[in-house]
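Figure S7 source data.
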Amino acid sequence: MRKRTGVLSRGVATKAAVALTLTAALCVGNAAGGTAAGAQDQASEVEEHLTEATKNSGGDLDLVNTIRTYSCDAVEDPDFYDRTSAERHDTKVPLTRVFDDLWYVGTQYVGQYILRTETGGFVLFDTQNNAAEVAEYTMPSLRTLGLGDKHPLEAVFVSHGHGDHDGGANQLRAEFGPDLDIYIGSADAPGKAYDPELIDSGIAEPQEMTVGGTTIVVQSIPGHTPGALNFLIPVSQGKERHLMLLGGRQGHPRGVEAAKGYLTGTERTYRLVDEYDADGSILTHPTSDGSLVRMQAIDRAGTRSPNPFVIGEDRTLRAAAIWRGCAAAWLASVDPATDVPVWRVVSLEIEQPEARAKTVTAQLETGWGSPDTEPGWGVVAGQTVTFGVTGSRDICTAVTDDTGVATCTLDRGLRPGQEVTASFEGSSNAESVDLPANSTLRVAAR
Ligand SMILES: [Zn+2]
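Tokens for the predicted zinc ion complex:
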């Protein structure tokens, strides 16, 4: 029986400030003359974005080691991935449960995720390399998980049209017949023999699709391939619900236009993570975003609690900013004419407010924070922070001083249990984008 799959478009207008700040378009700067000065400029443009990727980790070593290293590798050390991936092709990862309703199976190089839907069926993300791997990995895994009339395979989503992701699709079509929906970005569909359902690669906005009662968000990010996709996948662990980003990081494409598209895709990814509050990421190349390290941690500890894939909204957003910095560095390395702004993740830290206090303060910082002396990084001075207090109409704005601190005086003293919120709308110019930031802290009892 063919399952109904609803497609709803969802706008991303609710965070207008983010959208406005982040739509800073590519601006063409340095002339492509190949002069010594031009080459120097371009080397520093590459360097600037590599620094961006590092600094946006905020000093988080997990992000540096799992996200930054693999996302910038193609720029810093083009052979890095190949050198370290050869053995990964041959190292099998058995069916591994990463959430109550999500499993991975394949090799350390590439594989697929199996999601159990609300109605008890299954959805696959990617298809393995070929028919032999469908027989070796996919079918036994689905049977182990209870594949049958009550637990059918409901849909397959292909992240993009490269053979290591859709090479098993013909075999899945042969196994499951003409009614199985196999989705792919429309720009990657030409020449595919497995009769895919198309997701319009021309639509930039995220789209929500419901399969077996489970809503999956799909977004086009042309770049790695013209039809490449992001997914947001709802997962659960006990009573906790989480939202994993599948995407954001595939290898950097050759060619200037593709590299520009790839950069745009990472910026879309940042907005997607921000809009939906994704709190972790997975990838079907599990080495490239730390998924493998996290699966190994589950194996070693023999438990999924706490789940190493859940890294929180702020850190997932930082991961997206790191991908963006690496993509900008890659574009600068392939296109001498490109000059794009640096993105800086801003942290906004509220000083613990106490009951009866009438003053609230918060500090705006980027990179390593106050000790960061790299030009453009560190404390953010001269920017407006808006404070609010729950249960009060008091809105107070203040401008950050030379140490990045904004101080506001409220009309009334704070009460225990109230929450102080602070927000920074972000700012941008031709050279840089300081990303928006928000923070909330509960008033302490005295
Ligand atoms: Zn690929």
